[in-house]
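Let us practice reading a record.
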Amino acid sequence: MTQLLNGVTLLSHLGIIGVAGDDATSFLQNQLTQDFALLGLSEARLAAFCTAKGRMQASFVGFKRSHTDILLVVSRDILAPTLKRMSMFVLRAKAKLRDATAEFELYGLAGEPAVKLAPNLQEPWSKTEIGNASVIRLYSADGHRRCLWVAPAGEPAPAGPALDRERWLWGEVRSGIAPITAPIVEAFVPQMLNYESVGGVNFKKGCYPGQEVVARSQFRGTLKRRAYLAHSPASLQAGQELFHESDAGQPCGLVAQAAAAPAGGWDAIVSIQIPASEGGRVTSGGAAGPVLSVMPPPYPLVADV
């Protein structure tokens, strides 16, 4: 299995929003699901930017380069609209938002390079500095360690064999954590992608857009969907509707992220109605579409906080 996910790849599908200024932390504290006031310089955070209805319009891996300079790693296909939307809320805050993608290089490290270059990162979302680069431990994929490498443009690439980007994307799927991309903007509240179980939601922080809906989903038993891993013999894509045999006329969920599997077929993260995960036929594209095998996520789901 080691050869399936081992090497270094340029993450050209990702971009960076920079937030700088004396109020950078407090601004993000008021906008995102994560507690940036408690964020130290040796850690990163998964976070979501929600609508007033609690639907995720973006997700980030965020970290501080200093207490007044924060970087948010985001899918490049939603960077521009996300930056525009977030900038509307700056108002009088001493915080300046920018597209900082051209200022940095982003690499993914998987397998041996992740172990050798950052052996001290033992827990997901822990962070260290290697020269001018920030290195963040991500969730593993099938036991293979994964890290995100963010360095100023012009810095040397991290050492290691080349890894195909499609293979990296497959590893993202196998980690069970789906980022928000254009096809699924506003499709899910955070718990529908298990964000509360992988460090993406802090229920003890103050208000942010959609906070009441997110909290109600957690504490009042209103959550109807969860994220699971799935495999299909046919191709899958983010935003594709899924159906369960118990009600073939109505979708039971959506594909959140998908990638070609090295052994054939397609692997995916799917967000589906909880009963649909417990048995019965789940298909893609329609009731007569290809049948999916649905599996639990590769991490435990937390109980209500």
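A brief commentary: The longest strand covers residues 56-66.
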